[in-house]
Amino acid sequence: MKGLALVIGSGGIGTQIAEDLSLLENELDVVLCGRKKNFSNFWEFDIEDKFSLENLRNKIYDHPKNLRLVINATGRLHSETLKPEKRLQHLNKENLIESFSINSIAPILLAKTIEEFIPKDISFNFATISARVGSIGDNKTGGWYSYRAAKAAQNQLFKSLSIEWARRFPKAVITLLHPGTVNTNLSKPFQRFVPENKLFSPEKASNFLIDIIKNQKPLDSGSFVAWDGSQIPW
Ligand SMILES: NC(=O)c1ccc[n+]([C@@H]2O[C@H](COP(=O)([O-])OP(=O)(O)OC[C@H]3O[C@@H](n4cnc5c(N)ncnc54)[C@H](OP(=O)(O)O)[C@@H]3O)[C@@H](O)[C@H]2O)c1
Predict the structure, then answer these.
(1) 70-97, pLDDT tens digit by residue?
(2) Which of 72, 88, 97, 209 lies 20 to 30 Å (CA to CA) from residue 7?
(3) Which helix or strand (DSSP H or E) is residue 28 part of?
């Protein structure tokens, strides 16, 4: 891959992907964009802030290389106020709005922001990290209402976008990714339920995800893919 690569979200998975991509792909200029500076080539960025999106647009515009790859690795399962719901009575409007804001609205507005930089005749990849729990078909245990619904909404938004971009940007590929359960802040409170061999290091998850992105072709655009390359039901 050759050109500018933006990894959005300087958390466990995003930072690792930025580090690995810059080692693996000599011709990529990899920039990590987020709220915490975890990587040398870093742009301060808040994906939920419209001024920050505008600022990102200006930085891409000023960058000498063509945009080649965008990976969205932001997301939120819990925060000081947000707790994954175990039952209906835990649900409230504020939690639903917070979860949808970061897990579905922000990623599609990111895609809207970078769209003007997609080359018509050169390969371009946009990957966004979803989660298997966003699968409606695979929902066997319930709970986590707002996170599940927000990731399902992200999936639907990007499925629609993949159909639009296939007409307008035939070389563009959109991939919705499930990274496995990964040892990061996001999963920390829930790791005791995960068998040791099923808890991936960020390094392992990053390797899987980079491999998937590199192997995706335009005809695959709009698929929801797990770390092992398997398709996840919607
Ligand atoms: N870890 C897992 O087991 C797992 C499983 C399935 C899916 N995922 C998905 O994988 C993705 C990456 O998560 P992770 O495991 O790497 O968790 P993480 O370490 O918590 O990283 C998430 C990152 O998103 C950033 N973020 C949140 N709101 C933001 C905003 N408004 N602007 C910019 N950045 C923002 C956070 O920044 P701050 O630190 O500044 O808040 C954090 O760096 C998420 O989409 C998550 O849903 C993870």
Answers:
(1) 999 999 999 999 999 999 999 999 999 9
(2) 97
(3) strand 28-34
Query: Which of 43, 52, 76 for a ligand 1 pocket mutation test, highest count of atoms within 8 Å of Cβ?
Result: 76
H-helix or E-strand spanning residue 56: helix 50-62
- What pLDDT digit, counting tens, does each position of 149-202 carry? 999 999 999 999 999 999 999 999 999 999 999 999 999 999 998 998 999 999
Please state, in angstroms and as integers, the Cα–Cα distance from residue 163 to each residue in 33, 82, 169, following that order: 27, 33, 10
C-alpha 129 to ligand 1 mean position (Å): 9
Is 184 close to ligand 1, i.e. is its CB under 6 Å away?
yes
Ligand 1 pocket member 177 (CB < 6 A): no
